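Researcher: Next sequence.
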Amino acid sequence: MRRSPMITGGGAGGVAVVVVTLVATISMELIISFIVGAVAGNDVVAGPTTVPALYVFGDSLLDVGNNNYLPGADVPRANAPYYGVDFPGGRPTGRFSNGYNVADFVAKAMGLERSPPAFLSLTRRSSSRLVDKGIGGVNYASGGAGILDATLAGKTIPLPKQVRNFGATRAQMVATLGAAAAKDLLSKSLFLIAVGTNDVAAFSITTQQSDVAALYSSLISNYSAAITELYAMGARKLGVINVGQLGCAPLERAQSPTGACAEGIDALAAGFDADLRSLLERLGGSSDFPGLAYSLGDLYGLMRAIIADPAAAGLANVDRACCGGGRLAAQISACQPNSTLCADRGRYLFWDYGHPTQRGAQLVASAFYDGPAQFTAPVSLKHLVRSGR
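Model: Next structure:
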């Protein structure tokens, strides 16, 4: 049976998005150079924001340690070296990265220090400050998580459960701040979501793939239910990241004799991304969701652009893992203390078998926050968070 990457989930990493045709008059190099300029230095440039808090949902692209608190030996975790080698203090935190991840860089762009803390890490005291008062927000993301409960069942926190966990946060806020104040705070907050990779990856390794339409229908129905529930609890600003180009992750490339990207799983991801875009367009234009605004980040398209011209993004390697072992350093299940570690981590797109490096995460967050319009629709995250809606 063929293994496929679960790039944004912790079961096997990667990044992707709906394929977008770049404007003919703008060169690929110019587009990537625009992004690189925005991340010159160490961080995405921050600016004033009207957003009081960030609430994060999804998989290992955004997880900052929730999985560290889950029981079981089979839970995907990033709690051992060399994960976190470039994080302040050089320690693993549960992020599937050598340092900061996409949630961190989006938070930094909003003026926060880093991603809000993992939901399962909150003590009664920290919960009182961060949850009751709505300061900063909470991160509910879980490595390996899917849109469906059945994806890596029992080993992660699926999207529906993450939404229920937010419900507990909201109830605590209402009890402390009052319903009106909690509603106002949540309506101004950003809800960042990146999920679907693990569902697509799990489907790709099944022996029966005849009913792709049924898969998409199930995923979109459950995604819609999650957004509807968040909306009912006060969410109005959604930052959504689609599924990346999974077939170009080192894990997938390592299975090809030539190291080529796997077209089959890329096609699955692109099909889901197209349906996700349609869902958001439908919800955003529906009279049933007044005030709902969103920004859709095209991870698939961004990955495709970076891989086509890595030098323009300041990268030297876009097909090999920085930390791992075997062919393309992608034939072990995770980065481990005895893994081979690349020397120049800032020049690699992939940290392990499928998750982006800290540098890769910077590029992603910058592109979606204030990058070329080709990678966000209908507006950028910066426009969304600064809007008065």
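Model: Residues 36 and 329 are 26 Å apart (CA to CA). Confidence is low (pLDDT under 50) at residues 1-27.
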